[in-house]
Amino acid sequence: MVIKEPDAWLVNLADCTAKHIVDPGPTFNCKLPIFALSAEMAKSKVGELEIGREIDFFHQNSAKLIEGPKLQFEAKYYELQIGEYSLRLVERVDTHAPIMIALKHGSDLYLAHYLLWEEVRFKAALFAKLEGIKVEEAK
């Protein structure tokens, strides 16, 4: 995902395609929900679970600590029920970073795995026109 308000690109690096979206305004409040499977979900409590604010979201919503499998590093497992949605988070304790988030709704299961989590300095070039990517205008 590349965001340079009012423009945003959802990039699929597997097939080198992207969808371009223009925020119509009048305000440009950037929200980055992890699970926005519909417009309704994006506006719901589940839509408040945003990239970069995962652990805070679970703590603010009184998630309970649960048991989970032993990993090569210390991890905490959280569970949270919001209406008909069940959410789980795995936090790597030494870095306080999420490594996996799951959303279960009925028989549907959605997972977000984090391969890398680090703070980086701002690089303007990352927000320039995408080279080598076929961009489709979103409708």
Strand numbers in spatial order across the main sheet: 4-5-6-7-8
Q: Considering DSSP H and I runs of 4 or more, what fraction of the residues is helical?
A: under 10%
The percent range for strand residues is 35-45%
Shape: globular
Our measurement of the CA-to-CA distance between the termini, rounded to an integer number of angstroms, reads 17 Å
Radius of gyration: 17 Å
Task: Report what the structure shows.
- The chain is mainly beta and 139 residues long.
- The protein has one domain (2-137).
- Helices cover 9% and strands 38% of the residues.
- The chain has a five-stranded antiparallel sheet with strand order 4-5-6-7-8, covered by helices on one side. Strands 1-2-3-9 form a four-stranded mixed sheet, with no helix packed on it.
- The longest helix is centred in the middle third of the chain and has 7 residues, at 54-60.
- The chain is globular.
- The protein starts with a strand and ends with a strand.
Topology:
Elements: E1 2-4, E2 7-12, E3 17-22, H1 39-43, H2 54-60, E4 64-66, E5 75-82, E6 85-92, E7 97-105, E8 108-113, E9 134-137
Give the structure's gist in a few sentences.
With 139 residues, this protein is mainly β. The protein has helices at 39-43, 54-60, and strands at residues 2-4, 7-12, 17-22, 64-66, 75-82, 85-92, 97-105, 108-113, 134-137. The mean pLDDT is 88.
